[in-house]
């Protein structure tokens, strides 16, 4: 009888341990998703800064066209 009780106790312990591991994994995944969402929102809000030279050798024109390059932001009033 003692061995059966030990087996039952070990079984219950393993179930608790598995539940704890599952919960920790869910928390880690939720934190990772929250970080990614914050990073994405931050990047969308201001836009990424490009380190490329957008002027090129055309002296203020873009891609060889004769029209000046338009700003990606709406004009302010």
Produce the secondary structure layout:
Elements: H1 2-46
Q: Characteristics of this structure?
A:
single chain, 77 residues, mainly alpha, 1 helix
- Major sheet: none
Cα(first) to Cα(last) distance is: 85 Å
**Low-confidence stretches at least 5 residues in length (pLDDT < 50)?**
none
Estimate what percentage of residues fall within beta strands.
under 5%
Order of helices and strands: H
Number of helices: 1
Q: Which of globular, elongated, flat, extended, rod-shaped describes the shape? A: rod-shaped
In percent, how helical is the residue content? Answer: 55-70%
Summed over residues and divided by their number, the pLDDT gives a mean of 80
**Global structural class:** mainly alpha
How many DSSP E strands? 0
Rg value: 29 Å
Structure commentary:
This protein is mainly α and 77 residues long. The chain has one helix and no strands. The chain is rod-shaped.
Write a brief caption for the model:
With 77 residues, the chain is an all-alpha fold. Helices cover 58% and strands 0% of the residues. It contains one helix and no strands.
């Amino acid at each position: 009888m003692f061995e059966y009780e030990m087996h039952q106790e070990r079984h219950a312990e393993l179930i608790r341990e598995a539940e704890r591991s599952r919960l920790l994994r869910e928390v880690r995944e939720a934190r990772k998703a929250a970080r990614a969402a914050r990073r994405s929102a931050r990047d969308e809000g201001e836009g990424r800064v490009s380190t490329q030279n957008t002027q090129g050798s055309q002296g203020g024109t873009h891609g060889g066209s004769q029209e000046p390059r338009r700003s990606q932001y709406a004009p302010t009033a």
